[in-house]
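Sample entry (413 residues):
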Amino acid sequence: MSGHGIVIIGGGHGGSQAAATLRAEGYDGRVTLVSAEVEVPYQRPPLSKAFLKDPTHALLPLRPQSFYEKQNIDLRLLTEARAIDLAAGEVRLDDGSALPFDGLVLATGARPRIPPIAGASLDGVLPLRTAEDARRIRDRLHGATDVVVVGGGFIGLEIAGTARLLGKNVTVLEALDRLMARLVTPEISQHFLDLHRGWGSSIRLATPVGRILGDRGWATGVETAGGERIDADLVILGIGAVPNTGLAEAAGLAVDNGVVVDRTMAASDPRVFAIGDVANFEHWQLGRRIRLESVQNAVDQGRNAALALVGRPQPFHEVPWFWSDQGDVKLQMAGLAFDATRSVRRGRPEDGSFSVFHYAGERLVAVDSVNRAADHMLGRRLIAAGVSPPAEVVADLSADLKSLVPRTAAPSH
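Predicted structure, serialized as tokens:
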């Protein structure tokens, strides 16, 4: 290396982890972490729950400001990367300066998907991605009466659950025929549909939005594609995210629904790595390319990219896991159920605590758990170890599944 150091673009979970891992692994060169936000990198999951519910709830930093200072990590807040010049080996910043690099980590994340419908830019129509977004929603939410959430995915349902806890009238409009369809199976979708309706929310499935209604620039309601009008003084957009690939694409890196990376997270230029929401990688479990949006994935890939940058590359081989807190219910998922051919339930939904084990043929590929944290942790260990308990053993609550896990197996970080 020439001594220019490593530049990390993006101050989320993955970027912060990459910087921390570089130092933990003994890298003593220059490390610069560029973040367009004003805050020291912070925990993002609470933004749709505790942060919205309580006006006094403060952001939770991933690491204190002093960590970056002690580790000699140059944290550049309120700084935007405008271009990557691969030929010159530098990142150009919004203040006109440039950062030369030997290695570059793209942790640019994703941005909320904004539907191409009339009224999406009205005041009172808000997405959620950053702390600033969350502050805007929180300021409006506490004074709102009627809240319409567009999208029945994790973010939309978490905000819907929070709004109901605050006593708001909540309507969720989901264009597909079930909730959280991208990541959970129909049984889990139905369980959460029943929960949200039981909490008093109106959930409309197979109901795309036609336009957002307004008066003098302010959102006043939503009109469905079928012509039904629903009053709203706050509209939340939660219909997914788009990877922030602009810098990579302009630089000439391979991009296809994210920055295309190899198994070590290296992009088409070997000096550049992409991690987290912006990375398109081949997943060991599925045997095909995917892009995952989760805190765990960003953190683990940040660690993986850092190891490669210090000369210890290794294939990314972590069991993906996710979680979603909706109302007072915790949903936890381990593995990926995309290729599942059958499912086995452990516990009873009517008891409010159960898991669904998903198999592709005889192979365990995923475990979804509702208020059953032990099953979640066990599922991560079983999948990591390649152990697939027989279906009849899973269904038997008296069976000790823990005894099936090899002692050397451990859940991913």
